UniProtKB/TrEMBL annotation:
Classification via Gene3D superfamilies: Vaccinia Virus protein VP39 (3.40.50.150)
GO BP term (any one): methylation
Protein name: Methyltransferase domain-containing protein
The keyword Membrane is annotated on this UniProt entry: no
Phylogenetic lineage: Bacteria, Bacillati, Bacillota, Bacilli, Bacillales
Length: 229
């Protein structure tokens, strides 16, 4: 059987939809994702946002409640079904099934994107970045989260060391930053989400790369360069 990266990823997330939806609220409200929306709002003005890899839509819902016009997109149709059901009474929010490397949006259609731990699940992250940049208006923003070295989900890429087919591209935060900056993005801000039990307030003397080494994930806001096509 021919390995199809994105088809296998779709199956995985279809299978995980119910469990993910059961735990999503806790992650966004009090867990590893609790700082993402405040970070997003701090650096990105109100406008039309696409939440790429939206899962069950709880993060999209929080953005919509904050005044953004939000479209959530996920590879998994079952995730989209979960998202639509739980947010059907919220204004300025809709969901669509789609692929990060072939986005169903017009060129320069949206003001911002949010992609939380979703770039890693694409076979060619650079293709995803280029497609995201395509749909953003000039000067538009992208908020990204990349899983850190201490993140358990990174284990999904481990079988590659045995030469097996995988559906996850692990990368270091510095690698993602370099990839973005070499391809038409300007860094606006970044910050870490520490591994549970790590107190970043006591580690301010450490360099950024050492802080990243202790991170569960690293958050970025980039701006689409108006000088690079």
């Amino acid at each position: 059987m021919v390995h199809s990266w994105h088809k296998e990823a779709q199956i995985k997330w279809d299978d995980s939809a119910k469990n993910w939806a059961a735990n999503s609220k806790e992650m966004w409200d009090g867990g590893s994702r609790k700082t993402i929306i405040p970070f997003f709002v701090e650096h990105i003005p109100l406008g039309k946002v696409v939440d790429l890899g939206c899962g069950d839509g709880y993060g999209s819902l929080k953005l919509a409640r904050g005044g953004f016009h939000v479209i959530g997109l996920d590879l998994s149709q079952k995730m989209i079904t979960e998202a639509t059901e739980k947010t059907k009474d919220q204004d300025n929010l809709s969901f669509i099934q789609g692929d990060l490397t072939a986005l169903p949006f017009k060129t320069e259609e949206v003001d911002a994107v949010m992609a939380i731990n979703s770039i890693e699940w694409t076979e060619k992250p650079l293709d995803a970045l280029k497609e995201i940049k395509r749909i953003l208006k000039p000067g538009g923003y992208g908020c990204f989260a990349i899983l850190g070295p201490t993140s358990g989900p990174r284990a999904n890429s481990y079988p590659r060391l045995y030469g097996k087919e995988v559906i996850m591209n692990t990368m270091q935060a510095w690698e993602f930053r370099q990839l973005a900056e070499e391809n038409g993005w300007e860094l606006v801000a970044d910050t870490g989400v520490p591994k549970q039990g790590v107190d970043y307030t006591k580690l301010t003397h450490l360099s950024k790369d050492l802080q990243q080494a202790l991170s569960f994930m690293w958050l970025f806001v980039f701006k689409k360069s108006e000088n690079v096509g």
